[in-house]
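Q&A log
Question type: sequence-to-structure
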Amino acid sequence: MDYAKEYAQKLVTADEAVQVIKSGDWVDYGWCNGTVDALDKALARRTDELTDVKLRGGILLKTPAVFEREDTGAHFTWNSWHMSGIERKLIGRGCAYYAPIRYSELPRYYRDSIVPDDVAMFQVAPMDQHGFFNFGPNASHMMAVCETAKVIIVEVNENMPRCLGGFENGIHISQVDYIVEGENPAIGELGAGGAPTDVDIAVAKLIVEEIPNGACLQLGIGGMPNTVGSMIADSDLKDLGVHTEMYVDAFVDIAKAGKINGSKKNIDRFRQAYAFGCGTKKMYDYLDENPELMSAPVSYTNDIRSISALDNFISINNAVDLDLYGQVNAESAGTKQISGAGGQLDFVLGAYLSNGGKSFICCSSTFRTKDGQLKSRIVPTLAPGSIVTDTRANVHYIVTEYGKVNLKGKSAWERAEALISIAHPDFRDELIVEAEKLKIWRRSNRV
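Response status: OK
Response body:
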């Protein structure tokens, strides 16, 4: 097959490609740093011609051009599988909505249940000699998107890293309807934030001391997991493995420090498995053409059976707040959507079932409101409208700067006692009073 000839036949401009989109269509925009760029700008130029175009995607790293106009809601609606700060702002404008789902179910949902996309368009790496366009660090659910879409448009970006090692990580030219050569923008980055705070460091120390040699790691997004990663890179730990939903910069630091070789993994030995990656250029350069990395669909990386098959699995994630029953909210502030369910519960469950596994939910004991008030993240009951990301029956370790507690198998009063012990001292008496009202406090616990 002459792939170069087929490529030339399918090559069109972005403006030509988006002509296939009609009012009322469902259009997949890609995922994270694979979200379309040139095609997005071309579709924005058609705004006045279109109404009720429903877009799907998630973890936006910049505002799409189609949402730059104030009246965009009459033309386009964003339906997100996982929210970023940009998407939170779009929700405030009334043109974006969160679609709650366990992230691991997304490929199956596309294949079995979803209203098929009329058009799927996303960024890819340049075609290789075998006619494949690699999805970059976005294997995630993209093959399922391609298998169910009526029309597939790829936007080629020469800066997209080729992410190898796994499966369902690219699409063949024979399956593509149109090819657009984009403007080759830099891949969207997500920084690790500022320097770690004293609280980050205190929490990280409590977690790192629980990690054995040969453990398999999953790190969530945020300052605390990144601080844990930095500490691991500086530690004496060895023979670590990686099996994670999201590949982050911290893994690069740990790997370059010689701590990761995957030799103790029960499955996918010697390889770092991940569903998608989002970080800085340092990370993208590390992922590019690296055979040690394993780019795989989220239905595999986040499958509880895959996770639990790995001995000494260590899962480290954040929380917004949690209550005295042990219910963890990691995705909303009351009714305000912050992120999404993602795969946190899958990793909590998988680590819980792993031989020697441990799941850590970490957070600072307090936070300050916009008007400067100090509030406890450990509360009697979650605020009305708050989402229970991790149910109380599945939570393992909770960690704040004041300590770590294992809630596995604890009764209601034991949970309340344990959680109050790692709350900020200024709030402990208040929490005890509330626990007594809830009938989950024993008087004998008061010291």
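Response note: The longest strand covers residues 241-247.
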